[in-house]
Amino acid sequence: MRLLKASSSASAPLKVILFGEHFVIYNKPAILAAINKRVYVDINVRSDAIFAIRVSDLYEEASINHIEESKHQFTRLSQPIFITAYNTLRRFHSVLGLDIKIMSDIPFGSGLGTSAASSAALITAISDLFNTLNKDDIFALTIEAEKLIHYNTSGADPAIVTNGGLIMFKRREEGMLIIPLIYSTELSFIVVYSGISRSTANLVNNVKSLRENNPIMFERFANTSEEITLKAIEALKSKDYEKLGSLMLRNHELLQSLGVSNDTLDKLVDTAINNGALGAKLTGAGGGGSIIAFGYDSKRLLNAFKDHHVFIASIDKEGIRVE
Ligand code: MEV
Predict the structure, then answer these.
(1) Are 288 and 264 within 8 A, CB to CB?
(2) pLDDT in tens for each of the 323 residues of the chain?
(3) What is the CB neighbour count within 10 angstroms for residue 121?
(4) Ligand 1: which residue has its CA nearest to atom 10?
């Protein structure tokens, strides 16, 4: 396909999972919000067949021949990015070298969907070099990219970073269900980073083992997660924020039972509640990453976490975009 330009920039929002993480892999519903923090990707076409990637202080190169031969065996952190670039270019029947620069508002590993947002922004930027792929194509390619990092992905992170806004996401045998939810613009969250970077793949695998070893218990947890998430949709609709808060806490307790929380995350949740939060919970895979909390007095909450990486996140209605 004909190259229309030699460079492009695109971005995708980061996300928080409000309800239903982990169980979403097993066909239970989840609620996700895109937040007003983004990952930006700049690409420039090179004159040789090399991919070069720059992410903060990291700089790595790989030849396209090497990527073709690698059979997707990862030896380096940047490999999934190279393979995603390669696979996306193949959609346009193109073999091009690229300089890829990735910049994130929030550090990688913070549990806010940096990997899905990087892939979605990269795919959007590459497709902009030719003509634009539609959102469904970008979503599908972002799922493929996430699978390179953690095989058993639900598709929830790719769905929210490509679409933006607030969504209910459910994986089903017959395909994925993505329902945009109405929200009030006053809805915002405090996000507190635990300082512990973790691997989603490992946590997802731990949950998989727990499910295999205790199927009946897991089924009970999964049904509870579904019940909490469906009640949360009602609470969001009726703007019953007290209810929403108590459901968040229940969700956190459920994730504790699942074994994906830890002392650091539990303490952050307690601090939020002791400082006027209506609700708080870990968000994403757990094991580290971030917690979210919300309440009427955001200033008090911010102050309670002044020694942490903390920020107020509002919902970003926009998903992927060409910059
Ligand atoms: C990670 O952000 C969310 C998980 O539910 C994994 C997934 O949905 O693929 C833990």
Answers:
(1) yes
(2) 788 899 999 999 999 999 999 999 999 999 999 999 999 999 999 999 899 999 877 888 888 888 777 665 655 667 788 889 999 999 888 888 999 999 999 988 888 999 999 999 999 999 999 987 799 999 999 999 999 887 789 999 999 999 999 999 999 988 999 999 998 878 889 999 999 988 888 999 999 999 999 999 999 999 999 999 999 999 999 999 999 999 999 999 999 999 999 999 999 999 999 999 999 999 999 999 999 999 988 899 999 999 999 999 999 999 999 99
(3) 32
(4) 285
The H or E element spanning position 142 is: helix 135-149
Task: Compute the distance from residue 94 Cα to the ligand 1 centre, in Å.
Answer: 32
Question: How far apart are alpha carbons 233 and 20 in whole angstroms?
Answer: 12
Residue nearest to atom 9 of ligand 1 (CA): 153
Question: Which residues have CB under 6 Å of ligand 1?
Answer: 17, 21-22, 24-25, 153-154, 156-157, 200, 204, 284-285
- pTM of model > 0.90: yes
- Token pair, residue 270, equals 């307690």
Determine the distance separating the centroid of ligand 1 and the alpha carbon of 221, expressed in angstroms: 16
**Positions marked active-site:** 157
